[in-house]
Amino acid sequence: MRALLGGALVLMLLSGCAPSVDPIERLGKKAAQKVRPSHGPHEERYRNWGLAAPVTRAPRPVRSPGHGAGPAGPGLPPALDHVPTHDKVVFLTYGADAEQDPRFIDMVRELRLPVSVFLADSSVGPGYARAARLRAAGASIENLTLHHAELRGLSYRAQRAEICGQQERLRVRLGGLHPRLLRPPYGTYDRTTFEAAADCGITSLILWRRTPGRGPDAYERDAPLHPGDILRPHVQPHEEESRPPASLTTETARLLRRIQESGFTVGRLEDYL
């Protein structure tokens, strides 16, 4: 009986009835490399956004111990429109329009863009749902005051209510978030702003690189980039009034192409402060 079973087993092996071999193993190492995908899921998505190459990671920042000293006085946060660095890196910062463009969240997630989004409670969508999606996609969420009010000229009490009120709202709505950065609405502030911001736990007031001789919301699309520039891309109307403005996603893609062509990359602002 054992002899019969042994003979049957030999016949099965010779006739190909043995357990099948993994086809990748059978193809061999060289052929297997052709079968397996050669790119990760994110590596080709940059092409969908009109980029010629992936957005490269910024170098590890080297913090300067003294760069946080601000003109407002000791113990008060500085106001920054750029970050002192020799790295060829710029920083992308946004306002409420980042939450209102439905494709922007996808762009941040797929390109792994290290952006900072400043939000005011008065302009945030219902229940902070989109803000939460932005944060989950990788964006840093920061403070733009409670009612997007111009702070300059307000009393200490009023400014503190605007800044601390939004700190609390972001903490409650976004799972214990504690923003460190404040963008004063319209880029205006006074000494009282520094004092109120410091009392609310803010470590820096964030402005943006402006174009000389133009309004505070304007920025020159083709201006040369400098290491450490804080940029504020946003929707701008076409010169032809009959044409609708480009979307924030389109404007960001155009800026990313210029950043790459200039040999720069995008850094996370919070990492450099």
From TrEMBL:
Residues 222-243 have a biased composition (Basic and acidic residues). Residues 1-20 form the signal peptide. The keyword Amino-acid biosynthesis does not apply. Keywords: Signal. InterPro entries: Glyco_hydro/deAcase_b/a-brl (IPR011330), NODB_dom (IPR002509), Polysacc_deacetylase_ArnD (IPR050248). Residues 88-273 form the NodB homology domain. The keyword Signal applies. PROSITE patterns: NODB (PS51677), PROKAR_LIPOPROTEIN (PS51257). Gene3D superfamilies: Glycoside hydrolase/deacetylase (3.20.20.370). Residues 57-77, 222-250 are annotated as: Disordered. This is Polysaccharide deacetylase family protein. It comes from Streptomyces macrolidinus.
